[in-house]
Fold this protein.
Amino acid sequence: MTLSPLSRRVLGGLTFGVLALIYVPLLVVVANSVNPSQSMTWPPDGVTFDWWSRAAHSDGAREALVTSLQVAVVATVLALILGTLLALALQRYSFFGKDAVNLLVILPIALPGVVTGIALNNGFKGIMGVDLALWTIVVAHATFCIVTVFNNVQARLRRMGTSLEEASADLGAGVWTTFRLVTLPQLRSALLAGGMLAFALSFDEIIVTTFTAGQGATTLPIWILNNMFRPNQAPVVNVVAVVLIIFSIIPVWLAQRLSSDVEGVR
Amino acid sequence: MSATSADTRPGRTTDPALRGPVARPGSRLLHRMVWLRLSLLLSAPLAWMLLVYVVALAALLITSLWSVDSLTSEIDRSWTFDNFRTLVDNEVYRTVTLRTLGVAVAVTVIDVAIALPIAFYMAKVATPRVRRMLVVAVLTPLWASYLVKVFSWRVVLSEGGLADWTGFGSPGYGLTAVVITQAYIWLPYVILPIFASLERVPDSLLEAAGDLGAPSGLVLRSIVLPLLVPGIVAGAIFSFSLTMGDYITVNIVGGANQMLGNLVYINAGAANNLPLAAAIAMIPIVVMLVLLTAIRRTGALDNL
Amino acid sequence: MKNTFRKGRVAAACLTLLSVSALSACGGGDDDKKVEAVEKIGKTEGKVSILAWPGYVEDGSNDPEVDWVTPFEKETGCEVTSKSYGTSDEAFNLAKSGEYDVIAASGDLSLRLVASKEAQAINTDLVPNYENVYDFLKNTEWNTVDGKNYGVPHGYGANLLMFNKKNFAEPPTSWGAVFDKAQLEKNKGKVTAYDSPIYIADAALYLMKTQPELKIENPYALDQKQLDASVALLKEQRKYVGEYWSDYLKEIQAFETGDSVVGTTWQVIKNNIKNPDVDVTLPTEGATAWNDTWMLSSQAKNPNCAYKWMDYILSPEANAQATEYFGEAPNSPEACEQTTDPKHCETFHAGDQEYAEQLWFWRTPVKECLDGRTDVECTDYAQWTEAWTEIKG
């Protein structure tokens, strides 16, 4: 298909235009992080770095960040394992109830967060009789993160076909060896993409988290929720957000490079 | 759907028993026993989903048939359809449901409409270098906290805020503001799957169609769009369900409005009426199940 | 320990059976709740967990300058963990989990905690600083039941009327500014109200003064007819409301920008608004108000540290710091001397009994009428909640 130069330009203009718009609210966040007005009214009436220095000294924010990273890492690892297993099972075999399993994986993300939240809250407290804690957040996050890994891995498996694995088996490699040396390397970029998305989902999740967080388990979004609505703290929250954006560019960029090296051929 | 026909389907489930393995005995056993391999693969994730999620959902369904004793605010475990009767009899629940669905549909339509050309440009027009930059540009806002972004929209849309200030004018706080904010928040989640499914469309396919004389419009409509359906469906499910379950955005920019999420939230977290909250939660559950079944009929879910 | 084990076994049984009847048998018992006051304080447990409004338990992690928890930890060796909540209703649910030893409860929560046996009676002799507290805050109907004291006062404040002078020819002196149709018309879409069922009491208070034929004696004791009248008034008001607020940054912002020009507020919100046109008043009808109480959970695992905390937070220094940071009246004249702003207690009318008499402190509406009527049944909080959903529509 050959697109006319004009339609190329229109598409390009549209894309960059929308992306620029996407960054406007983020610029507002940056502006407010140096806005002396504690209630963040527009336009800012000056520039101050007070909030930045206060954020630098905020132990609460730092601890919450660490907690969030821990939760996201563990939840992502769990999701990677469970999602890959499921994708292998569903893509490589047909069995009774396959459709139901397929639906089941999608459900935690397809059902609204507030539903998943109260269901899990009730499940943990009412049925299992456990106290909410940090690990309950991890379990909840892993549950709805499985689908992102599952989707990516399943799509890759479908494209990969089975010929390489069959060849490996024909040459006498065991199931495990084949998986480790043939299947897994091909899945690398799919796992990376799924894992990234799972990590991002978990890292910024607030609705399910509020329902499954135990006392003292403060993830970054919870810290933000607790501080966002306090006049003296809201600008500090803006600073934290700006820092997050800046630091997130590094892993996103790296992941993008890694996956495109693998994708290479189109 | 024609989406399946163009896909490179492996389809074959090979019978490993026919091959001559030289691997260790355990591995050989695994190799031969398809069901054993399958159950090894399935048991952990399935157990997880059933124990953590299905049990919780089932319990929620059961809870919705209970009631709360107003004196002791303990749950009264005798069966009753009172909660559902409340939902049907009270007009407010209908209004809120329709409002929520309306907002979710609007957000989804807007997001898909914006995401399609962007994803197309990223996947098929931009050079690899630019594409990589664009993906980063789309992913980065995901890391600025959701709450911070919503609050930033509050600042933008306020009286004399950025929207007013730059001369665009602001719709003020209300449902329009909710739609704008939610569409903004979930846009990356819609762009990504569409982009991913577009990337899978080989350039050669488009070139072949072009070489055979098909005009761009026809190529887009008859080749690209069908291949995109799974991606669009995935993105649409994301934005639809995320919007339907949200109660924070509407609190911050929604003026005096409330959505289903708010009703579930205040009844579960605030009014301590879990049974009623569970009954209200059944509304989005039913909506999503109906939606997923409908989509499944079209075959798009197989490729999700 | 033993109890968790038992709970775990019940849970296991529930999971294995998973039949409906088995599910209904699940859930904890009441046998681990202790509602009687203790005689003396034992050895401290080394930790205490606190549930409170945001800004009540500050350990410097939010702002290094704001820290009254660290001195407590140093002094008593009780390590503090805390959770803050957004509304009284949310707190009620959290308190029921039994994970908290001490709870800061407003009047619309305290009686619910007592009624559901989540609160333990307090032996005020074990709280030496209780002596300083203003007398009119002691043994009140929201912290004392059947002569038993269930909590020690923290601080209090009124739900005032805030307005933008530019939108009013004369500063309003009545709640009519947010309830009277003719006055609402001028500010359509710019009216704000507190987002909670308890706000129904504000409407009831207005009706109490303007429609005597309804015979409302106490805005928290409404029979069905009186509730219906209040709800109707609020539904009318809803047409003019721009947004409801429950967190104070939202309201500060709305008044700064002009998105809201009239509505209920707290003094602390007014203090944070830089716009000189915004002013606040206590209307002639009086106002609803909150009055917070430190309560001890009946499931407290660390009661001794909890007592230590209650005494500490009642001490003039800590109470002054906490109430000034939050923006409310402290609980004792001694605390008033410790505030960094010498005018703090004046601004918040601390100890001003005449002022306090115009306030209707938040209570939990219950079926048994709080105003002593026995011929009718009053509406309870669950009904108020349902009504609130309908009002917002």
Confidence is low (pLDDT under 50) at residues 261-266 of chain A. The first helix of chain A runs from residue 5 to 33. Chain A has one domain: 60-263. The radius of gyration of chain A is 23 Å.
